[in-house]
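cron nightly-structures :: item 1 of 1
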Amino acid sequence: MDTNRKPGTQAVGTVTDEAEEPGAAQPWAVARGLIPQRGPRRLLAVAFFVNMIGNGLYMTGAALFFTRSVGLSVAQVGVGMGTASLLGLVAGIPVGRFADLKGSRETYLVTLAVQTLAMASLVFVRTFWMFVVVVCVAQLANSASVAARGPLIRGFAGPQPTKYRSYLRATNNLAGSCGALAAGVVVQLDTRAAYAALILGNAFTFLACAVVIARLPHLAPVPAPPMADRWMALKDKPYMVVTLLDGVMSMQGQVLVFALPLWIVGQSDAPRWIVGVCAVLNTLMVVFFQVRASRGVDSNAGAGRAARRSGLVFMVGMALIAVTGGMSAEAATALILIGVVVHTVGELWQAAASFELSFGLAPAHAQGQYSGLFGMGHGLTNAAAPTVLGLLCVTWGAPGWLVMGGIFVAVGLIMPYVVRWAERTRAEAPR
């Protein structure tokens, strides 16, 4: 959010939703905040919801498609996906800058077209090298898409971008869960036709998303100041530090989906079915409480405080999980569930802080390249997360959970100071 903007004014280059007629009764779903008012924000939410259904399909069933349908080994899939993830990181900043200059809507449509073609091409993959080429193209397009999506969301989000991003995160989690459930049916069928339908279904969601995005109005790029640096994001040291710290904090997302299942199965006496319960519990909390958790996170300073709170809460949640190693099944189950609830509270605050900082510290005319940089930071730390969490939480055990929690606390305590540094450099910059 632009903290220098006066209350009630609209940011340059933004488009608001259609206003309701004075005195007109709002539909129940709009009044309850379940859907935005008619206009760009609703269209954007619908587009992302459809796209995230496909993402849930792909994330849940892709590994099985590549191994059981294409015939690749687990090692080959790991190498190919890892290579694609690292290669994809290079696309964010240049595509983000292109979106700043030429328009985020049009740039995003191009990335969706490439993703549609790349994803559909996967059904024709028969060899390892074909697989590597296609997934690299898909990942490059995905990273470019994330960078182009940043200024698009900021441009249509209105005066409360963090609240709108929180709303999108809640609905996207719901959509991803729907996709995962559908993928479960595919996995149960376990046939070539079913896996091909999964891949083509994901490709179709990119196309459907593009059809909805095409209905949005053109979002004019924000003019850059006369002496603005073309690649200013790469020279913005405070923002790069914020990106790194937020990336480390974002590793918390892998705690429940990677470290916790391995801990439950290998180190605790809790029943294995609780893995699914934890995933559902986390998803439901995000769906119902993400928007509420964003309240008060409407400035860079507020985001710094939210990051600090989240680090402390992560420590409590991870400590609860860490002590379950030698407990009875009943006690371990209860503490793990409580730990998941506590951890998810921290996740809600961390996500809200991340949304606000990614927008609030980025200049209006360079939202795209800053979004690309922010995405690069998250990509690098998320790529490292399985290794770090595997060594600490799974291999080392209870002490490792506490060390990881301590890292989150330290990052959270540092964040407000770095945010103030970033704001100070912006206040001192020539206008």
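cron nightly-structures :: done
The radius of gyration is 22 Å.
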